[in-house]
Structure formats: structure tokens, C-alpha cells
Design goal:
This protein is an alpha/beta fold and about 220 residues long. The chain is about 35% helix and about 20% strand. The strands form 2 sheets. It has an 8-stranded parallel barrel, surrounded by 5 helices. The chain has a two-stranded antiparallel sheet with strand order 9-10. Strand 9 and strand 10 form a beta hairpin. Helix 6 runs parallel beside helix 7. It starts with a strand and ends with a helix.
Length: about 220
């Protein structure tokens, strides 16, 4: 099975087009104002207009309320919700059910974390996937750091690998962890929130090569 890919932290229409043109399966829009990659609902709407069918639009939220998410959805259609804060399994499931969207949870891999138990908690609550990201004491993703890939579980669950991925290491990352998907943001940027189209192209080439080796 080929490895899927998501280019996250898209802030410009031209960057969304570059992600799609190079074969990304999904783009990520960040609705978390403190992030340098955050977009307004109006900006998100403009970006979403250039996304063709079969490419998913993922909305990233950090401890957002139901009202905040519903307000965002009045402006832009999101295919999947990515919960990236301290949301409990029950909170994720409740919000997703009320607004009728699939969802997955991002988990920061702290050295003391029981990864398998945490994955199970969210999957039992209805998560379509779980994203494993590098742990940082204050930042919510986009750190440019990677965790120890040797702890990445071999599971039937759809697991997404994030954290410190770049065009230079994504092939090795896929070979090492065999994830369902990879998620990149800072690794394909020329500046925070500004994607480098050549880096996107090279990253996606690495994804395809890694998937071929996996087979």
C-alpha cells in the first residue's frame, strides 16, 4: 500500500496548487492564531477553491470549541478535523459527531508516553487515524524536530508520521516506520508559512520512492 501524504500549514493559493500538482493527497489548514502558519476562514476559503476532488482539506484545531469550529465551517468546507491540542477522546468524538466530520488526533511522542495505550484511547473513540509528532514543551507541531522513529508502532491503525520530515529524510522515514501517511510543514518551507515549491516536489519524489521500496 502506498504511503499517503499531507502538506500542512498552507497559507497561499499558489502553495496549495504546488502541493496538488506534485501529488499530495491532502493539504492542511491551520486554525490556531498563535501559529505562524495560521489562516483566517476567509483565507482558507480562497485556498479551498483551488483544491480539486479527491484531495482532502484537513482543518487543524488546537483546543477549539464547538462554536469556533462551526464558525470556521461556515466559511470553508473541511473534509477532516485534526485535533492538535489537549482534547480528550470524548471531546474529539463529541465535536466531530455534532458537525458530521471524520477526525484524527495528533499525539506528541513524549519519552514517557505509552504510545500504544494512547493510540488505543483515541481509536476506540472513533478516530480515523492517529498522527504521531515530536514532543515540544510549548509548541503545538511545526517544530522541525523528529522523535525516535524506532518507537513508531507497527499497527493496523492508520498512523501518520510527522515531525522533522524533509526531502532529505522522508524516504528513510517511510522505510523505517511504514506509516499510513506522512505529514510535512516546515520541512518544505523557505520561511514559516511560505512553501518552497521545489522542496515540495523533491519531498513528494521521496515519498514515492519510499513507498516503492516499502512494496
Amino acid at each position: 500500500m502506498r504511503t499517503r501524504s499531507k502538506i500542512c500549514g498552507i497559507t497561499r493559493v499558489e502553495d496549495a496548487r504546488a502541493a496538488v500538482d506534485n501529488g499530495a493527497d491532502a493539504i492542511g489548514l491551520v486554525f490556531y492564531p498563535p501559529s505562524p502558519r495560521a489562516v483566517t476562514p476567509s483565507q482558507a476559503q480562497q485556498i479551498a477553491q483551488v483544491i480539486p476532488p479527491y484531495v482532502q482539506i484537513v482543518g487543524l484545531f488546537v483546543d477549539a470549541s464547538l462554536d469556533q469550529i462551526e464558525s470556521t465551517l461556515q466559511h470553508v468546507t473541511l473534509d477532516v478535523l485534526q485535533f492538535h491540542g489537549q482534547e480528550t477522546p470524548a471531546e474529539c468524538a463529541s465535536i466531530a459527531k455534532k458537525i458530521g466530520r471524520r477526525w484524527y488526533k495528533a499525539i506528541q511522542v513524549h519519552p514517557t508516553l505509552d504510545i500504544q495505550a494512547e493510540i488505543q484511547r483515541y481509536c476506540q473513540a472513533g478516530a480515523s487515524a492517529v498522527l504521531l509528532d515530536a514532543w515540544h514543551p510549548s509548541l503545538k507541531g511545526g517544530t522541525g524536530q523528529q522523535f525516535d522513529w524506532s518507537v513508531f508502532p507497527k499497527a493496523q491503525t492508520a498512523l501518520i508520521l510527522a515531525g522533522g520530515l524533509t526531502p532529505d529524510n522522508v524516504k528513510q522515514a517511510i522505510t523505517t516506520t511504514t506509516p499510513f501517511a506522512v505529514d510535512v510543514s516546515g520541512g518544505v518551507e523557505s520561511a514559516k508559512g511560505i512553501k518552497d515549491h521545489q522542496l515540495i516536489k523533491t519531498f513528494m519524489q521521496g515519498v514515492h520512492c519510499g513507498s516503492a521500496n516499502e512494496d
